[in-house]
Amino acid sequence: MLDKRVWRHTTQDYFTVKSAFEVIRSTKPKVWWAKYYKCLHPKARVFLWRVCHNVLVTEDNLRRRGFSFPSRCPLCLLESETANHLFWDCALVVPIWQWLLDSFMVHGYPHCMQESLGLGDNMSMYIKDLWRAAVINLSQLIWLSRNAVVFNEVKFNRNTIKVKLLAVIKETSVMTQNSMNNTVADLQIISKLGVATRARPAPSIKSCRWILPWYEEIKLNCCSSTMGNPGKARLGVIARTHTGAVLGVRTKGKGIINRFDAECSAIMEALSWAIEMGWKKVWIEASSSAAVMNFNSNEVPWKHRTKWVGMHYKFTALRISSTWKEGNFSADQATKIGSYLSSNEREDFVGTPLFITRIEDPLVEYFSILICNLFSFSGGWLGLPSCVSLLWL
Ligand SMILES: [Zn+2]
After folding, report:
1. Residue 158 counted as domain residue
2. Are residues 355 and 286 in the same domain?
3. Are residues 254 and 351 in the same domain?
4. Which of 169, 193, 217 is the last residue of a domain?
5. Cα 45 to middle of ligand 1, angstroms
6. Which entry of 149, 228, 243, 263 is 20 to 30 Å from 338 by CA?
7. Residue 168 lies in a domain
8. Are residues 217 and 180 part of one domain?
9. What CATH number did the domain enclosing 268 receive?
10. Do 160 and 136 belong together in one domain?
11. In this entry, which stretches build a coiled coil (predicted)?
12. For residue 26, is it within any domain?
């Protein structure tokens, strides 16, 4: 076989500018506020940047740059003016923050921007967007009011700030694409703020079956799991005959690889096992449709390509297909045993080992609940006979 040059930063071997950019750029954010930049108006982003860099023209900043004058908060006239005092600790702004915290049902009182934004981290996506916009815009409104007091001698008015802030929150509720959790707490917050509800899309329920292989064909269900992406991976393969009987189970530990690579490794492991056992008619069923698509279109990732080229012609019949984890749970159980194995260490079991508590039944329909096509839940739905599920539906 001829040597071939490969670009190792893509799963296929070809070079892309995007992959080169991903390699050379720093992927970790350098500042804590990077994650709060999403869904913000550019004006609010600039203000957040100024607060976080502490470059607002507050009196403490002027004094640090060599200006010498007595400092006094223009709002309360009691303490010296610093950014933290002006935005969070001043006696005139504390009631506004308390009102906002009550509206969002948040406990605790923040004393800086990081704390304020962090209070919303556990909220639903929709409420989180509203909270972030509210925090940043409230700080900006306080700053503008302070400037009006200093330069235009306008009296500080809490109610004006509240009205403007509610208008901004309403604007954000129209712009955001995220949905709320369908909980009473979220509904109470929405009712207090007077914004529209944004319910989660209704879940869609899809079904799948574990189908028996053809006569004398061996079906190998394979699965992988990783602890993180990339993370320590483990593989599990279960082999069954055309009658549904379990021939054996193989588990294997892998090093630190990404999820897609782990799925491809699981398929390769199933193929290797089939060759070792002398099975000629083989059906591989995996959980990853992307990995299966790569194998079926002969675009196997370059790490496995040499091995694949050497092995795939050894079968008289080979088909590779994908299914959901809900219809592939015995292989998933096998992967859990693989977590005790070190990298490339493997264990083979004849028949059904004790850790495989359930195997797929060809007469049972398995269900997956899909929300926004992103999340799937199993659990209570798993393995319901089709007649019962129809009653449910
Ligand atoms: Zn003050």
Report:
1. yes
2. yes
3. yes
4. 193
5. 25
6. 243
7. yes
8. no
9. 3.30.420.10
10. yes
11. none
12. no
Give 62-86 pLDDT, tens digit per residue: 988 888 888 889 999 998 999 999 9
Q: How confident is the model at residue 381, as a pLDDT?
A: 34
Contact 145, 161 (CB under 8 A): yes
> What is the Å distance from ligand 1's center to 197 Cα?
37
User: Residue 32 — pLDDT band, cuts 50, 70, 90?
Assistant: confident
Per-chain residues with Cβ under 5 A from ion ligand 1: 73, 75-76, 90
Based on the fold, state whether residues 55 and 147 are members of the same structural domain. Answer: yes
Cα(155) to centroid of ligand 1, in Å?
14
Measured distance CA(249)–CA(170) in Å, rounded:
57
**Tens digit of pLDDT for each residue in 284-337?**
999 999 999 999 988 888 888 888 888 878 899 999 999 988 889 999 999 987
Residues 271 and 131 in one domain: no
Find the 72 Cα to ligand 1 centroid distance in Å: 8
Dihedral sign computed on CA atoms, order 145, 149, 154, 157: positive
Q: Is the pLDDT of residue 373 over 70?
A: no
d(CA 230, CA 83): 41
Same domain, 148 and 216: no
Give the whole-angstrom CA distance, residue 1 versus residue 306: 9
378 found inside a domain: no
Q: How far apart, in whole angstroms, are the C-alpha atoms of residue 233 and residue 343?
A: 8
Taking the centre of ligand 1 as the mean of its atom positions, its distance from the CA of residue 292, in whole angstroms, is 64
What is the Å distance from ligand 1's center to 120 Cα? 25
Identify whether the C-beta of residue 181 lies closer than 8 Å to the C-beta of residue 300.
no
pLDDT of residue 229: 82
| Domain end position, chosen among 143, 164, 193 | 193
Residues 6+ apart with CB under 8 A from 2: none
Domain check: are 302 and 174 in the same one? no
Neighbour-count burial for 288-325, b at 16+ CB within 10 Å, e otherwise: beebbebbeeeebbbbbbeebeebeeeeeebebebbbb
Cα–ligand 1 centroid distance for 31 (angstroms): 29
Structural domain containing residue 46: 32-193
Distance 74 CA to ligand 1 centre (A): 7
